[in-house]
Amino acid sequence: MNPRLPQQKCSFVVHFYLLSPCLLTCADRSDLVLNQSYTRALVHWGRAASQGYVVARIKLGDYHYYGKGTEVDYEVAASHYK
User: pLDDT for 27-51, tens place per residue?
Assistant: First the structure.
C-alpha cells in the first residue's frame, strides 16, 4: 500500500464531504463551522502536498488564493502553483 494514500484520502474526504454543496446549503452550517472545515482541509492538503501529492499542492494554492481557511495571500498561492 502506498504510504501517502491515507493522507490523500483524508484530504479528499474533508474537502469534498465536509465542504460539499449539499451540506453547505443546510441552515445549521454557520460561517464558523464552514471556516473550521476549510482550516481542517487546509491542514490535510498541506500534509498530502508535503508527501508529493500534486493535486494537494494545487488545492493549497486555491485555498490561499481565495482565502479559504486562511487569509488571502497571492504570493503563497503562486508558490504552490509553481
Answer: 555 665 667 788 888 988 898 899 8
